[in-house]
Design goal:
single chain, 215 residues, mainly alpha, 83% helix
């Protein structure tokens, strides 16, 4: 069976796997973004705090994905829970690091001016610092998403959702006629999803970042 014939026969299952893959990555990115920005907000004013946050989240990336999932499975079982936990942990570093860099990079004169007109610390953060730090934060989100697209495929090892199941089925049956088609379909599907997500982030950036800040 040719690759195109395989796609025609399996398109419904492939679309379902692609939807699950995109869904779990999107949901984990939302959680990782909220947690990562909060960590950045709490630690960016402190030199040692920022270093500790960056070091702690970077340590997560040193753990192989299979080992990470293997460590989580005994605690939460198979399926979606270990996938969500692992992806969220892996997605933190670029967001935390860029949030800290972005917040520290806000022009001090703007902060002083905001304080001069009576803004509280919370209002200053929400209305001045976070909007100005948004471009590097968005860049961190884009980097994290690209990483998680690939890592999410490993979640199939623990019965997780997504296109990794297609890849693992092909790897598990190297002698079958469709083994290569399965691996190729899963891999290309992940690449297409990654490109679509990145295009969406570019659009979000154009809609949410003022032209002057982009320049």
């Amino acid at each position: 069976m040719s690759f195109w014939e395989y796609l025609g026969n399996r398109h419904q299952q492939l679309l379902t796997d692609a939807y699950q893959h995109a869904s779990v990555v999107f949901q984990c990115m939302v959680v990782a973004t909220v947690i990562g920005v909060l960590i950045g907000v709490v630690t960016y004013r402190s030199g040692w705090g920022g270093s500790l946050a960056t070091t702690a989240t970077s340590t997560m990336l040193t753990i192989p994905s299979l080992a990470m999932i293997g460590l989580i499975v005994p605690a939460v079982g198979l399926g979606v829970p270990p996938t969500v936990i692992a992806l969220t942990l892996y997605g933190l570093l670029p967001i935390v690091r860029n949030a800290i860099v972005g917040l520290r990079g806000v022009d001090p004169s703007l902060v002083d001016a905001a304080r001069g007109i009576g803004m509280s610390r919370v209002m200053l953060l929400v209305r001045v610092e976070l909007p100005l730090a948004w471009p590097p934060v968005l860049t961190g989100i884009r980097v994290s998403t690209q990483m998680l697209m690939g890592i999410a495929a490993i979640a199939a090892y623990a019965s997780g959702p997504g296109l990794g199941n297609e890849i693992f089925r092909g790897i598990a049956s190297p002698g079958s006629g469709n083994a290569l088609n399965q691996v190729l379909a899963g891999t290309l599907g992940i690449i297409v999803l990654a490109l679509l997500f990145d295009a969406a982030y570019v659009l979000i950036g154009r809609l949410t970042i003022p032209r002057g800040i982009r320049a």
